[in-house]
Amino acid sequence: MRTEDLFREDATLLDCDATVIAQGEGGVLLDRTVCYPLGGGQAGDTGWLVAGERRWRVTDTRKSKEHPEAIVHLIEGELPALGTAVRVEVDAQRRQAHRRFHTATHLLCALLPYPVDGCSITEAYARLDFHTDEPFDKDAIQAGLTRLVAEAHPVGHRWITEEELDANPGLVRSMSVQPPRGLGRVRVLEIDGVDLQPCGGTHVSNTVEIGAVLITKIEKKSAKTRRVVLGFAEPAAGRS
Question: Which pTM was predicted?
Answer without folding.
Answer: 0.91
